[in-house]
């Protein structure tokens, strides 16, 4: 057989040589050749024939007749043109420009042009040059090309697919044209590699008149070569402009980034230096480069109907900031609504998180920027505005008549109005009530202004700094990896976007008014800029006095933001020169300010005097070096200096040192973990010797704001890791040694332990009701927090610290003198803490038993009971496992009891539950009065404040068991709430007025017998014995949330009763307490929760009744936050605020998700009804401008649909976090599509549009949820779970497209969802596509093609990596045919 084959090709060669010698007609030769090959059974076109002919011609037979023979072989489809081109391009002794020259002379370029640039259609290409002639469906031809050009080796791809090889070959042809053009103009030497991987470098390259190469080029050939160079460049442009080839090139760009980078680098050389390109009449350098960045040809949606075209146009519109959106109530702030919700949710003081708000906010900002397709300056502007709104809700600018925060534009108009009137008519007065006014924040154990300002000036600036640093580090990495190693522009798009956003922020004056407590700081920031412009230098280390302030200097929050950005090296002082940043008229400073004793004095070496300490405590550090100085004093100074330095660290530098806040926290954590001295030899822990220093730090960071700020920075796990050794050491120490503080107080081990232990408990959901541990399919976010979990997060955080790129960058920003131990620690290292935690869990799970008489624990119980009830004569007996029990009335005295309790605190905590059980039992049986019980509990808590944890744990468990008789709150035995219970009821109704939720009545016929479960009555009686001072507040912040959560889980109206009692005790907490009681309505009534969710949707979308809201979006959803300092008393609370304070207590979060999904669907119907009315549809049909009107109406509807989806997804994500989002995508959405729904059937054209709008709403809903939970990249730990969920969901969609799953929803909804979700994923989250299994992508793509979505199918496959590139290329060719 081989011999026969050789005979065939020998005869072909002889036939060709004979035709060459005889100069016969090429057509006759081709006919004869075709006949011979057909007779021999050779498949045509023949790769072997192409090899033979090119080998024969190049270059021993380089004469005109041989090229004519090759031309006819191509015309008669005897040889594959691509193989011929590949063979010619690899021949030694010829450049690609020479090929162009040869082809131009011989006419072969005519065929090449048609093959590539006209899509090889039969109507335009010459005979034999159709797709069938390419035979692209077979691998043989492309494999032959690969063998010739070595594509797989050059591009490093092992797959051998027809489409993949085709993409590589087309890319290589264009690259060869580029390298040939650069080489011909002498520009190749400027490239990184100095040569071409494609072009041979022969020493002789001239074609002489006899077909041989000579050493010199004559002028004719020089001119011809220039023409051919220009033609080659224009041919590259045609490759990029042509629909078919541009798509193939796009696939290479998308999936071969390193090769594409090298190609672009050379293309930029051509654009900058090529004379031929500049002289071209058909393409300009700018247009040439733009073609390489134009992906619209792949992502364009050429749909078959007008309605589809409009929908897809809206899907890719990207932004809601058009005039259409504004006309229909969706302001510019609408697209950033998820940021507003996230920020407000983080301000909930009842929730301490282990993850950094910076990391979460970075992921959220990236997600919204991707999905909304906004510029970075718009993105940063939206972030700043959302953060400013948070501050204003905390302590902000309000409309005093309506009780709602002014919209940005409204506030600006009023301010401008007053300024204008004062200029035109100085005598005319505008009443202050018409202008934004400041209010006092609500008091209570909740984060206040300091936390809100930290969010704006520390967290948000860190988010922006991380985003900018991330981009610029990528630019540096690209520069280092680039072959040219040319330094790229340092300032990326994000830094430029920051500058633009801050310049634009000055237009939002209504949001920039600083709260009164920081107005002086804002004034100083403005004065600093004025003095800089005036040429006066200002040191960072002093505080400017009022007398030194420039005349009429008025600063705002933008000045503070700019200063924060300058401090973090995102801006420089050129920002002071921005137009309108400051006004110099009449503001020349009277004199250069004199320094007051403060941070600059410290840095200059001044000692810590009492006056300086007071200043440093009240003034935040001006720089990292200043706070480092204080840390070194706290670590290495004298005992007194250490105490002073620790006090300074926990002062203003912690809560308002926004530029160095994270450093201050880390220094405090480091000081809480002092190293073992080298010469230490004691038997007890070395930490005991640091008691005074540790106590100052513990007390200094125990406020609500401090703990919340720690939580925002994600440093709670590190703090927990520092507190546990302190608890273990001081809880195990016998309180024999005490320390005298500067105030004269005695400090004991028990006191240090109590401060550390109560702070530790606040870092996890200690106050979570016991019943919540066993309720709900998916627990609320954060409910799994425990000591073990905190340590796991701490170990993970430190283990990964410095490994990912972003963490390396962040670590470089930290102080060089800070060294954190990365050694993991576990609960086994703290046996006493572990034992207490086990007992805590046992207390929740079962009743107490097993107390044996005469044991050490029994003796401690006796001593505790004597301590608690030393004032009474009746006996209280501990429960024992024996039949005997001693009456404590005849026991030792109180002093002796305290002496007997000079034992480790852990031992006392172990015995405390038994003492509590005995006391509660005695009270239930009448042997102990309620007042005596409360007094005894207070004595116990005063003796060891840490026992409050066990008190809360025990009483919570007992309330849950429900075995105790109720206590009658009648004012005789127990305190009575009757004085203000009715007032509380009315205030609750007023708070909930905006939601339409009914409040259950507290009385029937004007009377009500208030009762509480006995353990709950005992606990509330204990809390109201405390005076609300600074010391007690530390412990009430532990008990208060627990009491609140416990009462909320009890039957209505337990919490209103408790609120009534507490409001009598602490009037200034009244508003907070009433608001807490109002939330209980939703805990007991699922219908109320649904109504609240409905109010969130209707208010946001502007669908509420006129008396509730008319504008919609953020102002209506979140309102003014919470407060009662308005005319008329407490105001209705916006539904969004209520939901954000309620959702953590809702146990059935799956129910919440289903309701949110249902409300989203109903909202779409309402949106369609309000925008796409029947009259509007008739107008659309009849008007000659119907298309334009239809686009406006549809765009308006899609704008609000997207807003509704954004709201719904935000609520799902905030409610249940990652687990709930994954449950939604894996289970809820597939179930919804399969189920038959009871939504009313809208008929006619508008009904079809409603169905489609629902599909698009679900597409946005799913994508928003996914991006919020997983992020758009792979930076977060949650993103590791994304591939599994995406695989399952896309497999469901593929099965639906294939008809394997029967859907219950409207077909138009299913089509809109599938195409919309894939479309959004392609456009907004391309990295997701890379994580999906190749086979699933191909199945989805095939299904989309069946639904006439070829363009989308190509775009999807094009992002799937090399594995799907071949299939994408084949689909491109099929579409081109």
Automatic annotation (TrEMBL):
Keyword Membrane in annotation: yes
InterPro entries (UniProt xref): MED33A/B
Name of the protein in question: Mediator of RNA polymerase II transcription subunit 33A
Membrane spanning stretches: 1203-1225, 1253-1272, 1352-1373
Keywords noted in UniProt: Membrane, Transmembrane, Transmembrane helix
Protein's GO biological process: regulation of phenylpropanoid metabolic process
Organism: Salix brachista
One GO CC term, this protein: mediator complex
